[in-house]
Protein 1
Amino acid sequence: MHVDLLIENVRIYNSYFKTFIQGNAAILDGRFLYIGERAADSFEAAEHLDGQGRYMIPGLIDIHLHIESTMVTPETFSYGLIRNGVTTIVPEPHEIANVFGLDGVKEFIKASQHCVADMFYAIPSSVPATSMETTGGAIEIEDLDELLRTERIICLGEIMNYVDVITDPDCKTNHILNHIRSHYPHLIIEGHVPKLLDLDLHRMIYSGVDSDHTHQSIEGMEARIAAGMFIEIQEKSMTPEVIAYLMEHEVSEHFCFVTDDVMADSFEGRGHLNHLVRKAIGMGMKPEQAIYASTLSPAKRMRMYDRGVIAPGKIGDFQLISNLEQLTIDQVYKHGRKVYDVREPYEPTVHSPAFPAHYYQSVHMAPLTESDFYMETEVADGRYACRTMMVKDGSTFTEEHHAQVEARQGMLNWQESGYGLIATFERYGKNGNRAYGLIGGDTIKRGAIATTYSHDNHNMLVIGHNPVDMMIAANEVIKNQGGFSVVDNGKVIANLELPVGGILTEVPLEQVAKEVEQLRKAMESLGYCHYNPIMSISTHSLPVSPALKITDFGLIDVNEGKVVPLIIHS
């Protein structure tokens, strides 16, 4: 019998029994035809591959991630995925949607058409994430219909505004959920429900949201699984307690591993979803269980019944592993064709420019001045209790503290408060909004950082300890049409240019990784003490991530879902 590829002498992962079997595998027309003991005497193969006793596992599947978090284009992202054994992903482009709306989503999908990795897109459901911020674009109900009609869509992306879903029946998000349930009842709906328990959690599930990828505790994870939610475990949830729970309980059908957000330097240095699998194994999880949680389990969640398993009729996506515990990848095959070999050159293919010309001119701001970082106030001279955003290492959540700050001659004297200033400026040329707050905790202790890479609205965000450094940092980002700038004592010490929508670059992954590493070190040199300072600062403007955040509307009490004043008037 003719086949295209015969792989012999391999230990093949059987997903259904979660075990390895010694045998051979035959592929025809990009799909597995046979797995078992039959060898070359049963097949006339166009190509033979001696597996040399290595492990053969399916291509990894990541069902929740944002390509924009790596700050690269889809093609560059695919290049990084393939060499890490990730062959299928479900990206949600809600960052580019916040900048360019429906057009951003369609252009992003168009930019992925040449990718080797399969990309089945999630529709951004929460653009903007709340009604308390200004974005460059929005996704409305008619946009959902357009995308479902014209693009390769697999699910509705994470419902983020959980406060409104629970408290406001007439909010935009509930209208979207009602529309999806009425018109697309079989469409999968992804969720973002940090810390919700009991009735609030059940109300979210009742609304149609039946997954959660946010930071998990044992209590929260158990409550979600008990109520029928699917859990997507990202690295920050991989605590010893959580991994032990997943190993000790029969929950393999109720969770998978996802990356969500991966910085370019981590992508280059540690890997992607394979890094989480390797980490889980290192924490004591059996390789067979960790592989299941990154192949068949996510495939089932997204109803991708043609992949995630090495079995007859399934897509021929697989990798050959020489060391199972370290998940050492030797070769990667896509649809039965070799696309990566560790012993051979592997070069990225990039079609540049990947986007329309106006995507490179999206920061519509005049240069700022030193006075833009003074805090005017209408209160009388005196000392006042002020809300302060406190950054915490180990989480992108922040806390609200109160600090006494002096007001003199119409100005809040923040520079002598012991805290830094956080400011945000609307950058799309729509309304000129700006807002100010105080910041402390595990953030910088001197200098300034400015960025347009600020989730999810991507307005200009600046933190610092003196107006001059803040002005220099902001103007550097404006000049570069987006990105990051770190300034210390009047000198720019790190720059990351992101000219595509103010959030992406088209330079190679290796170069982005080096620039991101330099950026991280520069932030740390100013005193930033966080496991991921770039993601930390980027989420200071995310008004669905507890507890105190800032947008161009002002300070946001995330748990209450409302704008609150800086000065607390008794």
Protein 2
Amino acid sequence: MMYIVLQIKRACFVLGLLLTFGSAQAAAAGCQRADVVVYGGTPGGITAAIQAARLKKSVILLEPTAHIGGLMSNGLTKTDASPRKNVYGGITAEFLAKAKAYYGTPDPIRIYFESKWAESTFNDMLATAKVNVEFGQRILKVTKVKAALTEIAMVSGNAYCATVFIDASYEGDLMFKAAVDTVIGRESRKKYGETAAGVQKLARPLVANKQILVDPYVIPGNSQSGLLPGVIGVGQKPLGSADTSMMAFNYRLCVTDTADNRIPFSKPDGYDPVQYETTARFFAAMQKAGLGIDEAYFVGRTLTVRNKLDVNSLRYFSTNVWHIGYDYTVGTEAVREQIRAKVRNHIAGLMWFGQTDPRVPESVRQYMTKFGYCADEFTDNGGLPYQMYVRQARRLIGQFVLTQKELVKKTKYKDTIGLGFYPMDEHGMIRTVLNDYVADESRESIGVGPYEIPYRAMLPKAAQVTNLIVPVAISSSHAAFTSVRVEPTFMVLGQAAGAAAALAPSGNVNKVNVNDLRKKLSAAGQILKF
């Protein structure tokens, strides 16, 4: 009898709890909850998740694909690290120290690694921090109550609730769904008073102080025959004007000439040598100007570790695909995948062109036959990286906009949360025609040295959302973002975002005590001044 009474009392207690919390639970029915939800398993998202977890917060890290690590797990294994000491600390330095110890890298600053090692190491660090990582979670929509995000729903059907959300995606998709102010493309020079802003002057390829003349027409000399692939007809736009042009995208290939670890380059489906006609004409024009073609033209010489090369784009005709950034950024996932496929096909075709086309110098073709994709990388993807190099997409327009002036003047802030370092390096923006020859629109890199980044550059306007932090697609001008956009800087910003999320009172990231935030970051090894 006593047992039955106790069971009735327990049932009544549970029923009371259900009634008490029923309304709150109903609002988040089917919603997986954590103190902090991070969208995007990029290096910036990973450091954000780890730092929040280390400050005793429950964290869910959502990755749209099947792999974390962003570009650092996808071919970009030279990391664009600072050539100066005392720039990157905290989790960034921790990761690089692990790489140095594992590979025995002799250079104390230039620390390289393998993509597969980076992914494995990131996974280990997340597991140690007890971060719950969920793969295949692409954002569909968000729910806001007044100015606070309460839930994000995914294409998979899952939903996630948190006190604070962090958008660490390259594309800024969460912040866009949250309806905060964003920008695509580049501002005019007048907007922020930046000399590096807006449309630049067209220039034909210049090699060894010789101008290289590349005919842009399908039938050479015949403007009525149409333009070759990769060339558009906009011509010179007004200098300094704003537009939606964006930096070219590519994939950072990992290649090797180690015979037992090499997947030979092969002819891709639908291969059409016309796609590389500009490259062939560039070679012919170089030879006409008395200039040779480096045998490593297509794969470069950036040797990292274990005899693997990190293949990036060259300035002129290489792995970069131009004029796709805007369509990719605003496109549906189906459109984005079409663009990714286009870029993958372009690069695979370029490697095949480089070793088979008779218009490529024989020495280059012979050199190319030695190389192939690394068989021990991206093993479920034929040796090709999973992640396209999205150099820029949407950017936040937040509580503070970082511009060229702040980088050059090395502005000091009361709310500095870390340092950035990299030249203002702008990849190709527009490839067009100037007086019947191919001309490119981009500018030379501008050195800026280490600079401080304020917390406010990661915050949307308070009236728009109160519990969202954006450490990757930060609030900066296009000109400034050409420096901010490197992975170690994203990692620094991510760690700061994770700490701020952990300290945000009732989830309000605008009410974080900046002094406390800076103390927490300093204690975690983050470097706040140079």
Protein 3
Amino acid sequence: MALSHHIKTTLACALALPILPADAAAARAPGPGAMSIAQILQAQASGQLSCVDIALNMLNTIKLRDSGLKALLSVNQNLIADAEKLDELRRAGTLLPLHCVPIAVKDNIDMEGMATTGGAEQLRGNVAREDADALRRLRDAGALLMGKTNLDELAVSGSTISSLGGQTLNAYDPARFAAGSSGGSAVAVTTGMSLCALGTETVNSLRNAASSAGVVALRSTPGLVSRRGVIAQSSTMDVVGPICRSVDDIARLLAVMAEPRPAGAEAARAAAELQAGPPTPARLAGKRFGVLANLSGKGPEHESVNAIIRKALDALRAQGVQIVEIDDAEFDSDLSSKRLNVANYEFGPLFEAFLARLPTGAGPASLRAYVDAGRYPAGMGKFLQQSLAWQAPLAMPEYREALRYGDSLRGKVLGLMETQALDALVYPAQKRPPLAVGETPRPERNGIFASALGLPAIDLPAGFTPPDAGAPVGLPVGLDLLARPGDDARLLGLAMAVEQTLQARREPPAADRR
């Protein structure tokens, strides 16, 4: 599918203006999409770039990259006007924490004046009257909102395909897909179509998207970031989270997105620690990481990922990290995904409630009407039919058992971390490298333990598979770090130190390589 008429019109108008750096030195500097937040703030402070320069550079990158990757659904029609307002604020002496930091938004998150479609053709008319809470906080902090990214329709699957946007492809090898329903957001970030992005995660969607795109994503302690203004899939497991190129950028976004007074002791502690000051890299010497051995695959198809994880762990050992091997058959991602995934039961009632709140004509009247229209990706069929068949899913004994088992396993994990004095648990986000379009995405993913147990986790690049004809720089492999609830700031400090040790990120091939 080509760029939508909406995107084409916005690009045509914006790209009629010159895309010029402020001086010759800026011409040699990385483009805004390859900068960190600190660099993009400094480039504006020094006069090297205006916000309009940044917006135009981003639009040019979208023009060059997105038709082949399908990461975006729509571009903010007010982008240049928003950039001009931010430039005016700077000239008047008002500097904001995220001044003109470009951020793309997954299209199940409300952005005022733009449709929130969840990737569904049937929700084209659902225009948001206000920003979602998390997005409002970013906008108020000066973020430049780029537009909406593609996702797995209604965020219910794992390969980033929707009736509205088609199939988002992997920037490192377009024969492979962008894993996770937040794949459009992750691809936009890794290619520089946006500096950072917002995504959501129910089971794997932030961290697997980041792993497949060679970027960083955080699942925070539940309650730390508001979910109001998001099309819900699970009241138990959903979170809104940032995707960026570095842990420092993630920390800057989280500090803004976090609720100042969240409900729940764990989220409140995390918020207080974030408000106390920005996280700094931890000292790795003496830290103890538990490696969940059963979350590494055992077949030859898993060896490339296993080799990268072994090398990463060796590098951490060299920094003084104590690696504790944990071989426990209960940590089985495939079995646990079946036993723990309460989202399967919660989706139907939540989607019905969402549709009931829509204005007349903004979307289908019910889940039955949505399904009967038949305009959704074929891979959703089984899930949707199951949701229709369950008349009272929250009263089903299987749902109650999944909640009970989640509580039990959470206790086991926290007890294990306590008795072994672990600072974090580590494991590959996916047992295999990014999968080819058409392969089944789910069995090789390990995100269920953080999502179902309510624990914060971050994924960051661990390394790359050997290059081949399809992937000339190799394929990215992500490492998950999982911490205790409320330890978000501490987790970020650990991740910063791991990131500095591994230095594993690589840029995807340029558009002209495709």
Protein 4
Amino acid sequence: MQIRSIILYSKSGEKRVLDFRLGELNIVTGTSQTGKSALLDIVDFCLGRDEATLPISPIFNTVAWYAVVLQLPGTRVLAARPAPAPGARSVSTAMLEVGGDLGIPELSDLRTNIDSTQLRQQLGRRIGIGDTRSEPPAGSLASPLSAHLGHAVLLCLQNQDEVASKRVLFHRQNERGIPESLKATLPYFLGAVPEDQASLQQQLIQGKRALRRAESDLKALQEAAQGADSRLQSLLSEARVHGLLARDSIETSDRTAVIEALQQACSFQPTRPAGDEEQRRQELILSEKATALRRQLRSLAEERQLLNDLETQATGYSSAVTRGISRLSALSLVPDAASAEHSCPLCGNDLAEPDPTVAAMHSTLNDLQDQLNSVQAVQPRREQALGDIEQRATGLREQLRGIEGALSIIAEERTQAAGLLGQAEAQAYTRGRISAYLGQINTTADSSAVQRLESDIAVYRQLVHDLEEQLDTEAIEEKLTHSLGYLSGKMTDHARTLKLEHGDGLVRLNTKKLTVVTDTPAGITELLRIGSAKNHVGYHLAAHLALHQYFVANHRPVPRFLMLDQPTQPYYPSDMAKRRGRLEDLADDEDRVTVTRLFQLMHHVVTELSPNFQMIVSDHADLPHAWYQAAVRYNWRNGEKLIPTSWLPEEDNTP
């Protein structure tokens, strides 16, 4: 897979088509802010990445669709994606079209017909990515991982933040989950893992599970056979304790007789207490009667209290009247004379206010005597009423005591019934245990079951052994070591060609740490501990060129292109130097030589692998060498850019 064209469609229907040569070095040079770096993001986006990393600017907002035309053996593929909506961070839809003479469609012909996942799957199959799903290690929480085109593309792109990094060797390596994906898929892309690894691993897992299950069943049968007699006797005793068998039902050690007795115990049906519903109905009726009697007793108590209160009041009133009569009884000693009303009966003197007449006081005395007689006349009737109330209350209490006695009897019967239910539950539990064990005894007695399990175990063991040989970890490690040895040789040659620091030692790719390491007098040194961004660029280039040399030589399913963005950025620090991109803009003669070596190495490797490898490099450098100028496809200077300014509205395009 190589890139024939990158196409941008404006919202008005115009097209910006960038064509690239297949199997050659393609250089896009120019000044800053001309869109060179966006080429890599466009390719990444069109090949299935959902997250949009394209620039957000007025001129890029004019783009409606992005597309690439890919060259595959014998055919072409158009992969197109609609531009993200304003404010959107991702897009999942795409368009995929395949044809031997496929041209560049118009904007009106573009429409989504696939999602990004299917896009990667179909493109991956076309370059040879097969069923590569790998199971995680035992005990790992990771999900099974399937290699797809997205993982392969990580080996084909280097943006300007990555190509000079000492911490990141591969594209997007600093993003969550990407390092794990690279570690899992690199052995496959290097050919160390078989194509059908996923299928073989799944068969191995299933074979091991079947083997463990058969071994467990056989062990259970064997253990059950060893302690069967003692277990049977124990269950027989338990059945007697819970009433499933008569206590003198069987006294023998014969297994057959014991099994028959236990089978009889399993068929035991407990008797449930009868009349439970009738008992509940009677209890409800008695409870209602008891409630009514208590209500009547409360009413009688209230009446008794009322009569007692009246008795208390009458007694107080009688006492008061009696005292009044006692005081007025001395009237018989006083003469009944009219003059006595105005004179003191003791001294005879005249009174300022005349006293009541003797006749009036006699009248009051008679009234009091009549009232006392009336109160005393009521007393017998009140006492009779109290007696009636007490008699009625006594009868009600007798009835209530009888009802409460009946309820107590019902409660005792319920308690006994609950005991019977508890016993029934214990019997049911025991019957279940006996039934389960008798099932094992029956299986144990069948010798053919043991023979069948032993035969299955032999078959499963052979299957697991054969699959483990095919998935031999040591064999995979040997293949991976061989692949890394090839890469090390190429990387070392490239490092020496570029005259990198510590490049005289053995340079290697560390797939566990995803970095470059090299031998130094102080020991093994990682890229992180090698100074200078210039060296970092060189080691990145050496590693990725070596990888693609390996991919081509071994026909691995990886796209046959490598895109680099700004590999010479450490050498052009000033804005003036970036705009011109000439060698004479570099202050150091050694830097001029090194920049030339970088592109010479790219040119040499592409030529060596032609027509099976393509490079697209976006950079400020504009070297004067003929071979370099022949590789320049686009030179964006003097107003030339990726997106024409004519796409902007007129009000935004005014100088």
